[in-house]
Each structure stands twice: as structure tokens, then as C-alpha cells.
Fold this sequence. Notes:
Chain A has twelve helices and one strand.
Amino acid sequence: MAVIDTDRPAPTVRTPPLQQPLIVIxxxxxxxALRWRDLWEYRELFFFLVWRDVKVRxxxxxxxxxxxxxxxxMAMVIFSxxxxxxxxxxxxxxxxxxxxYAALLPWQLFATALTTSANSLIASSSMVRKVYFPRIAxxxxxxxxxxxxxxxxxxxxxxxxxxxxxxxxxxVLLLPLFLAxxxxxxLGVGLWLSALNARYRDVRHALPFVxxxxxxxxxxxxxxxxxxxxxxxxxxxxxxxGVVEGFRxxxxxxxxxxxxxxxxxxxSLMLVITGVIYFQSVERKFADVI
Amino acid sequence: xxxxxxxQGLAKLYHIGQQQEQARYTTLRDTLxxxxxxxxxxxxxxxxxxxxxxxxxxxxRPGEVVGIIGRNGAGKSTLLKVLSRITDPSRGxxxxxxxxxxxxxxxxxxxxxxxxxxxxxxNGAILGMRRREIERNFDEIVAFAEVEKFIDTxxxxxxxxxxxxxxxxxxxxxxxxxxxxxxxxAVGDARFQKKCLNKMQDxxxxxxxxxxxxxxxxxxLRMCERTILLDAGTVLDDGPSQKVINTYLGRDFGxxxxxxxxxxxxxxxxxxxxxxxxxxRDEDGTxxxxxxxxxxxxxxxxxxxxxxxYVLLPHFKLANEDNVRLFTTVDTDPQWRRxxxxxxxxxxxxxxxGNLLAEGTIFVDAAMTTLDPQITQFxxxxxxxxxxxxxxxxxxxxxxxxxxxxxxxxPRLDWSTTYSQV
Lengths: 290, 422
């Protein structure tokens, strides 16, 4: 066939045809048939999705990445005025702004990561409908992208601590563990909610309320010492309690988190495991329902 | 026997509820409301079931380029979605022997705020390309898309043409063993479409397996030797493209290339004449429904005369896909001009020369009128249809031009030039 096309590439040598199928598509699949090989094959996609989320988040804004600082700082100012200043809520002897900010930092990370990942599937619904890729990449990328904001906002904390002449305790070495717990909790809940969100858009409307409620169920604006005992233990079930207490302990040297933190770590882990299982079990329906 | 694709009894069931017509997702409220309304019954009442695919089986050998055709709703897109692993089949099984890339939409995942360069990498990753692979092909992709100057501009400032070109260019440089393509060539200008078709042909010639859904019979004829016809979720026909396209178009427009009224009682006609058959033949006399743009095509009308003594005027009217009437041609055979015809069976043939009709589907109306008085005996619209295809060889009216060639006809005319040195 004489086709006018000069930039035709030289024919490449093809590998001989496979005797075994590389991919088998079938109606039956176990609930735990994780496509590990796919996750590995698409590892670069994770990177590109995170990169996209980071790049795009503050596009067409005047202040750009400054928002990553402004958001927690403004929350800190408001909390300091109303809770620290007017309501005179105890801050365990620390200056209220730094007391609030040390907790707001992981909290903002958690809230952003949760919101982004819970909405990640519907935000990329055209991709879900038109391309195959491990769907789990979307909520995971949403969580990971939030870490960049966290890193930026962390700089402000260092400034605040210098201003108030606070020196972190040796426990600061444990900070990555608390950070990991915040990330895992957000991921676990994010996996559940993003999967549910694909089918029930109620999630999208309920989400802001859930995040706000969760904020008050976590000792961000108040110290956990404010709570009477039976409640305090019960509170330990909330993984973010351990995270926030851990951050204050590691950075400011407040009282260490109770032993409930071990239990709450277990809760985080369970959320992630069940989240992954649930996500994978409904993943195959996303393209049909989203 | 080696395979590239084996599909065995693929089936896909969709439940279509009433509220899902507008919104495919449900809200918890609907589910709860349903539960309250009929606490003991089934949740969604008699949910309408739709088998978008219903037992589709076929094998594809490595290197085959297979077209998939069918009406809207025949299951083409669902089949591609199942084979691309976007959605799981409800029943059945498919084996794919090699890396698969599917192109169901151009520019999936393109972000308007990102630059052309950034989107190439993002889109490539979404389609399953390695970063290194994209880097290696980057210059070629940009050159193919012809957007060199704007590669660092956010794509929201692109014209829709540039956007589509860039998006297709990324996909065209995928390097999978199996490529699944849905109607994406329906976008972009004609020249770029042609370029994409050429690119895809290369893909086929490099021993890559291609599944290609299209509504364009020309594209199918040009690309695919074999075609699968889907109808209502099942394989209706599978074989050489020409034959399958006949079957397909035959269902819509009367047998492609021919239409015969075997039952005289049902044949259209008046008191004087009755239409019995219309056929399209190539120059060798074979009935066909696709002719090379350079070759003549013979239109044949078979009719019966039921009453002696009338002068008859058989004629054909030709129209293109856009319903533009191309021309009407009446019987000018001197043998029967102004001569009353006796009863009997007649076959009138007119030859439309090659290098006259433009590329595309030509619809044929067959009509018959008595001359004095003028009474229409029959006038059958779209009695049959045929394809005129242009293989882009350089002895057509195109010459060396591969771009769009507008016009309802495409005659090859003689040009001459006088030159004088000034």
C-alpha cells in the first residue's frame, strides 16, 4: 500500500508471541486477588499523579504555595483568639499559638489527605471510565501529595518554636512514626470513603462535616488533659488523638501520649487493611457506577 | 497455534434503574427510600437488565488488525472496555497474550493547567508508558503533533485541534503488543486523521495486534483485513472486512451491493412496471458494495413490464452520506428511446466511470416513470448503497495531495500547463 508518509520508523523486531497469556480477564476473581504486579508496573503513575496534584493545587492562585502556610497559620490565629484568648482553654502551660500549631500541623495533613483521597476517584472519573490502571493509585496519590503541604507548613513551626525559644525533646526522633500514623489513618479512611463515594455521592456532602466533627473529637484546640478519665481512654480509639499528642510530646515536650497509642496504631492499621480489601473488592465496579 | 487475544463467551450485564437514566450513581437516600417503600421486596423493583455483551467469542492471531463494527448499543464499547480491563465481564473469559494499551478516548487525564510537555508525561504514564520510553519518544511525539512552539504552554490555551493532536501523538507512540482503539480518529482535521491512520497502519505492519472500532467503513476497509460485526451483544458476523461490511450495511440499507425482491407481490411498482432487483457490480461484473475510486461501477436495475405499449424511463439518483444529491441519470439507451416496451423482464445497466465519485458511501435511489403520460411506477429511496474508497495511491484525482479534498464529486481531470521564461 503506497501511503505517503516519510517519517515512518524502521520496523522493529518483535518478540516472539507468548505461549502463556499475560493477562487473563474473567468474571471470577477472589476478593483478595491484589494485582501486585500491576502496582509495580504502574509505579511511575503514582509518582506522576502525586506530581500532578502538587503542581495543579495552587495553579491560577495569586499566592501560590503560600496557601500551604496560610491555611494552618490562619487556623492557628483564629483558634488562639477564640479558644486560647477568649475561652481561655488550657494549653498545658505552653503558649497557645505554638500549642495549637503543633497539633494543627498533623491535623491539616490528615484533613487535606482525607479530603483529597476521598474525592480522588470522582475527580478523575473520566480516567476511571476510559483507562485501565490500578485505581488505588488515585487515593494513594491524593494522600502523598498532601505531604508536600505538610513539609511547607512545617517550616513555620520551626519559626514559631524559635520565637518562643522551645527546644524539641529527644522524642522528636519518633516524629516520623506519628507522621506515618497520620498518613496511614488518612489513607485507610480515604480508601473507604473514595470507594463509597464512587457509588454514593452522599459521601462528598457528608465529608466536610465528618472532618469538622473529627477535629473536635481530637485534642487540637484543647489538651487531652481536659478530658475526665473514662472518656479519655475511649478517645484513645481515635487514631488522631495519638498523632496529635505524639506531635506535642515530640516537639514541645508535653506529657507523653498514653499507652492507648499502641491501640490506636492498631486501629489505623486495621483501617488501612480493611480499606485496601474493600477498595479492591469494589474496584471492578467503579467504571460502571462512577 | 498462537493467539494474541482469545475471548470466550464474554458477557456483561448492566442493571438500568429508572433514576439512573440521568445519574448513574445512586444516593443512599434512594436506596433507603426503596427499602422503606417495599421493605420485603427487592431493593430496586424490577431493575431493567441489559446484556450489553452476551456471549462474545473470537480469537485474534498476533499481528492481525481486526475491525469491530456495529450499530450504537451493539456492545462495541463494552467489549473494548472489558478487553482493556476497565470493567469486568459478568461471565466469560478473555486471554491477552502481551502488553495491552487501549485508547478509548483521546487525552484522558490531560490537565488544562499543565503544559504540553507536562501532559505528555502524565498522559503517557496513565496509558502505561515508562518515563524513559516517553523521554526517548518525546521529540517524535511533539513533531508528530506539530505543536513544537507551544510545548511549554498550558494546554488550556491550545486550540481544540492542537489538543487532540498532542493527545493522539502520545497514544500513537505507545509500544504495546496489543492496541485497542475506539473511534478516536473521529476527531481532528481530515489531514491529521489520515496521518493517524497511516501511523496505525504502521502499527499493524510491525506485527502488532490491533482491535479497531469505527463507524467509518472506509477506515475499516483501509486498515483491517478482518472485521467482527456485533449486534445486540453478540457476534453476528466475523470474517473478511468486505463481506462483514456487506452484512452490516445490508441490514440497514438493503443488501449492500444488491437488493432483490424475490416475491413479486412485495416488489415495488405500479400498473406498468415493477422493480425486481438493483445491483451494484464492479467492472468484472461481480456484485460488490465497495469500489476503488479509480474503477468504474455498474448500477443494474432489473424490472418487469406488466403492460405493453408504454415508453419507460428507468433512472437512478445518487446521493452521498450528507444526503447531497450527486446526480440523476436516466436511461438514454438508443435502443429503447421513445419506443414502447413489450411485456417482459428487462435489465438496464448504467456505468458510472471511475475517478468521478468522491470517497464515501453512495446511496442509490431507483425510479421508473412512464413518459406519456408521466406516471411514476416506482421510486425506491436508498435501495442500496456502496462505498467508494480511496487507497491513497498516487494515480487518483488526489495526485500527491494527502489532505482533505472537499467536494461531492472527485473527477480526475486533465491539466495542462504552458510555461514561458520571463
